[in-house]
Amino acid sequence: MAEQEEISDPRTESLTDKISDKIHGDDDGDGERDTSSSSSDSEAEDKKTTSESSVKEKIFHLFGREKPVHKVFGGGKPADIFLWRNKKISGSVLGGATAVWVLFELLEYHLLTLVCHIAILVLSLSFLWSNASVFVNKRPPHIPEVRLPQEPFVEVASALRSEINHALVVLREIASGRDLKKFLGAVAGLWFISIVGSCCSFLTLFYIVFVLLHTAPVLYEKYDDKIDAIAEKAMHEIRKQYAIFDHKVLSKIPKGPLDKKRA
Length: 263
What we know:
By secondary structure, the protein is mainly α. It has helices at 2-6, 10-58, 69-72, 77-82, 87-106, 111-135, 151-175, 180-199, 202-222, 224-248, 257-262.
């Protein structure tokens, strides 16, 4: 009886082996499915991020900007004024510029006359107040000592000097005849400015530019998606017309000695 108990049925052993193999196989398959699903998820996420980055790179921005409009204007107080971050300051600046334009352009007031009249008014009031304070037993007006600091003027002069030097470098590159595209753009821009200058005075032109600086950036910041789409279509059409002009006209112009030396 003991020998019969020790001898096991081979059919039961084979059945248990099959069940265990099936269980382990299912576990392995689940692990492989988990790893494959995780790898597929990671690949999908990578593809998603790459597609998003490629879409971001393909987005067209006006003037090729890569920063927000506030950063383009320097990100300081001038940018806050142009983009109406503080409406009181921006409104007062624009109102002051409008008052100056009305005085000098519409009313034909002259700058030297205005400065002299303001100085006469201020001196007369302070003189009368100083003399009247003796009779009414009040203190005379305290006139502060005003001195202009040197640092702001030096900074403005340095910035102006760097901008003038940069403009001279650009003009030198254009005049050297190396880039026909820049030359045509400079000629077209100067021609447009000459037409605008013949239609209005310098003060009116300056006021128009000042108003545009206080209106165009804030509108562009608000509707940049629509404006960028329109600008992209316009730039595409301009490049198309320039390519046609280059093929029909510019390519037929004989090359000069400078181009022969390059070749």
